[in-house]
Amino acid sequence: FITGRxxxxxxxxxxxxxxxxxxxxxxxxxxxxxxxYKLAVVYYTEAQTIGEKMNIGKDLAKVYTGLAIIxxxxxxxxxxxxxxxxxxxxxxxxGDSLGMAADYNNMGxxxxxxxxxxxxxxxxxxAIAIRxxxxxxxxxTTYANLGNTLCESGQHxxxxxxxxxxxxxxxxxxxxxxx
Length: 179
What we know:
The structure is a single chain. The protein has helices at residues 2-14, 17-34, 37-54, 58-73, 77-94, 97-113, 117-134, 139-152, 156-169. By secondary structure, the chain is mostly helical. It is elongated.
């Protein structure tokens, strides 16, 4: 945090809004990785305020996604869904397909936690459609999320087929999440 604090102070001294935005967003992300969710909300909220004033599109969508992740992890699912929807609106507006795939996936997971299983399936299938084309690396995770939703909805045969697709898409390399 020492470097972050210095950058934060410099950005304020220079009156550089973009540098300040990127600094507080990055500090927020570090706080999330460390599990300091309350502190992460403070930094992400500051980034949100700056980003909304600057109207900076894709980068603001990443802030909304960061907040959505925090609220999902702290089980505030309605708030997580609301921030995912805000991120999706920007990603659709800017044509960010990777962002849209992530938003659809994240919304599908949150909707599963909210027991809105049909909607969860719809969003996960949208994520899969995009990831089949441009993001094959994250495709197995989305298949696994869909399998979990199908299993929870009692569609066990479909879930097994989807889990097999998830497994087939994984390559067991030293960098793989499964190792």
